[in-house]
Amino acid sequence: MSTLFISDIHLCSDRPDMTAALVRFLERDAPGADTLYVLGDLFEFWIGDDDPNPLHHAIADAFAALRQRGVPIYFIHGNRDFLLGRQFAKRSGMTLLADPSVIDLYGERVLLSHGDLLCTLDLGYQKLRRITQLKWLRWLFLRLPLTHRLAIACKMRGQSQMENVQKSQTIMDVTPAAVDALLRQHGCRMLIHGHTHRPAIHDFTLDGQAARRIVLGDWFEQGSVLVCRPGEQRLEQRSLSSLNPAGAHESDNL
Ligand code: MN
Q1: How far apart are CA 195 and CA 174, in angstroms?
Q2: Ligand 1 centroid distance, CA of 67 (Å)
Q3: How far away, in angstroms, is 51 Cα from ligand 1 center?
Q4: Which parts of the chain register pLDDT below 70?
Q5: How many Cβ atoms sit within 10 Å of the Cβ of residue 28?
Q6: Is the peptide bond before 72 cis (omega within 30 degrees of 0)?
Q7: Is the pTM value of this prediction over 0.85?
Q8: pLDDT tens digits for 41-98?
Q9: Measured in angstroms, how far is the CA atom of residue 208 from the centroid of ligand 1?
Q10: How far is the C-alpha of 110 from the C-alpha of 94, rounded, in Å?
Q11: If you measure from the C-alpha of residue 115 to the centroid of ligand 1, how many angstroms do you get, rounded to a whole number?
Q12: For residue 100, which phi and psi values (nearest 5 degrees)?
């Protein structure tokens, strides 16, 4: 009996080792789970479900196989793959959830989010987020030719990487007040999120009661998986090479 959470894999064609590690995780580790939650930024970027990138097909097949083995899969969008649509979700056997969403985790109300909406000190990013959330703009973007969409996505990625170098660690982390407010709003004492790539379990007090914030890690150097059982949450690191014996040689150099 376990529920698994992953996020921030940032899959892209340049990192076949991470793709292989995730596929291996889906084939070997996830089939025993009650449910798998993917909390955003599964892909480094997403320009539409009609992108013929073979990586997307391989990943959709791996998720669909897990779903066929009886494991429900839920997905919350990240700030990189916020355009991932119903078509891809259906093909992958994933159910899309809103950000944030409350789930029942073995009798406990738990709040799930990608986490970017909690980085409220990063005003530049929050402004961009409001723009990318505009429905009409998304509609327009998805109707551009694929080559144009790819060019725009690459430009935005480059710009964000350049800007992030100049931002302080505090600005790029979640704001404690925003975490408290969101937990209160949804009547929860536990939050699970990704986005900041700072895997940790933070215990704190909220209105005199014990509260917990669990941050999932990325998959750049190792796999990061949160394994939850009734009354227990364990954040596990798994080396990419043990997840992926076939790619062990390559991963040794990471
Ligand atoms: Mn993110």
Answers
A1: 9
A2: 25
A3: 21
A4: 242-254
A5: 11
A6: no
A7: yes
A8: 999 999 999 999 999 999 999 999 999 999 999 999 999 999 999 999 999 999 999 9
A9: 31
A10: 20
A11: 7
A12: -90, 165
